[in-house]
Write a structure and sequence with these properties.
- By secondary structure, the protein is of the alpha/beta class.
- The chain contains 7 helices and 15 strands.
- It has helices at about 60-70, 95-105, 125-130, 150-160, 175-180, 205-215, 250-270; strands at about 15-20, 25, 35-40, 40-45, 85-90, 110-115, 135, 165, 185-190, 220, 220-225, 235-240, 240, 275-280, 285.
- A 7-stranded mixed sheet has the order 7-6-5-8-9-11-12, with helices on one face.
- β6 (about 110-115), α3 (about 125-130) and β7 (about 135) form a beta-alpha-beta unit.
- The chain is globular.
């Protein structure tokens, strides 16, 4: 079955391969009139041709799509290429915005090339469209009938040459097809010190209420690699946030969120600079940029 609505404003025409850049680009639909692609922090728009007639697709539009989508990656001084990132959200996407801003200012050696969401009307999706980022709706449900299948999702991410998948408040279980396609390349952020207060149903304000009710004196965000279950993947980084005696869940959530924004950018920076090292026992650690002999 053909993929439908893979990207906001895209149609289900066959993928076209650029023989020079080995990049798969999907031709734009006429539904929105124009589509945007990222090219090293520059956004370029072009008018779309109708997608109901393959012969109506002009050579000029095809070539333009190739040129825009196949920008050369910038390298760091040590030859590390710039990474391509996919972000998954279900809500307002404050971590997504923080990551995007860090990419734009150059703190992260990478670019967000697509946003994936299970709620096409969420704040994160609105932000992505406003910034010209393609939006993919996943999965297909009764509420979101235009969503795509796991196999099609993998095809889209591979077509965009995505290096890392970043979950930023995405409340759906990641399908095994995606985990198998991106081993050790999918990370999630959780608002507690895992393994405490994790698992299915533990997200958002529920976590902070549970932390306060438990009497725990400390909490904080955890970034971990993703496996087939909720919040059970290998822990990559954590940051401790004290729980005050008179904290409300809202107050605690605000302090944890501030640390989330800082920690996630730091970890993604390390990912994009190839500074994640896997110990023999399967535990991931981060090599210091300033001192390569130090790890955290």
């Amino acid at each position: 079955m053909e993929v439908q609505h893979l990207l906001s404003g895209f149609c289900s025409t066959p993928m076209i391969q650029n023989p020079k850049a080995q990049f798969f680009a999907r031709l734009p639909s006429s539904s929105s009139g124009s589509t945007y692609f990222a090219q090293s922090h520059k956004w370029v728009s072009f008018k779309a041709c109708p997608c109901n007639s393959q012969r109506a697709l002009s050579r000029k539009v095809v070539e333009r799509t190739w040129v825009i989508a196949s920008s050369d990656s910038e390298d760091l001084g040590n030859g590390i290429r710039r990474k391509k990132l996919a972000v998954f959200v279900s809500g307002g996407g404050s971590n997504f915005r923080s990551i995007h801003e860090a990419c734009i200012r150059g703190s992260i050696h990478g670019d967000i090339v697509v946003l994936v969401t299970n709620k096409q009307g969420c704040g994160g999706a609105d932000y992505a469209r406003d910034k010209g980022l393609p939006v993919v709706l996943f999965p297909k449900t009764k509420k979101e009938p235009d969503g795509i299948s796991p196999i099609d999702l993998v095809a889209v991410l591979r077509g965009l040459e995505v290096d890392f998948v970043l979950l930023a408040g995405y409340l759906q279980l990641i399908p095994v097809e995606l985990i198998q396609a991106y081993p050790r390349s999918i990370v999630n952020i959780h608002p507690s010190l895992l393994p405490a207060f994790g698992g299915k149903g533990n997200y958002g304000m529920r976590v902070h209420k549970a932390v306060i009710a438990s009497g725990a004196r400390y909490t904080g965000p955890t970034i971990h690699f993703v496996d087939e279950h909720y919040d059970t993947g290998r822990i990559l980084a954590q940051r401790v946030v004290p729980v005050h005696a008179n904290d409300t869940a809202e107050e605690l959530a605000a302090r944890v969120l501030r640390e989330e924004h800082h920690l996630y950018v730091e970890v993604i920076t390390a990912l994009c600079e190839d500074r994640i090292i896997w110990r023999e026992d399967g535990v991931p650690i981060i090599r210091s940029k300033e001192n390569p002999n130090e790890y955290s």
